[in-house]
Amino acid sequence: CAPMNAELETLHQKVLQLAALCRQLRSENAELRQQLARSTQDNRHLQARLNETCAKIADLISQLPEEDDV
């Protein structure tokens, strides 16, 4: 009976460790999801700024005099 109790206690400890690991991973997953959402939002903002800058540069280039005009 003692060996069985020892096995059950070992199994119990492993289940507790597994449950703790599961909680930790859920927490990390939630944090990573938040980081991803922030990064995605930052990326959209930077892409919009890049598009604006490209449009401004294209506009400035179109205003440059042609080589024949110089």
Can you walk me through this structure?
The protein has 70 residues and is an all-alpha fold. 89% of the residues lie in helices and 0% in strands. The protein contains one helix and no strands. The chain starts with a helix and ends in a 7-residue tail after the last helix. The model has no long low-confidence stretch (mean pLDDT 95).
Helical content stands at over 70%
- Anisotropy-based shape: rod-shaped
Residue share in β-strands: under 5%
CA(first)-CA(last) distance? 101 Å
What value does the average pLDDT take? Answer: 95
Question: How is the main sheet built?
Answer: none
Uncertain regions spanning at least 5 consecutive residues: none
Q: Indicate the radius of gyration in whole angstroms.
A: 30 Å
Number of helices: 1
Order of helices and strands: H
Tell me the total number of β-strands: 0
Determine the structural class based on helices, strands and strand pairing. Answer: mainly alpha
Draw up the topology in text.
Layout lengths: L1 H62 L7
Name a few traits of the molecule:
70 residues; mainly alpha
Summarize the structure.
The protein is mostly helical. The protein has one helix spanning 2-63. The termini are far apart.
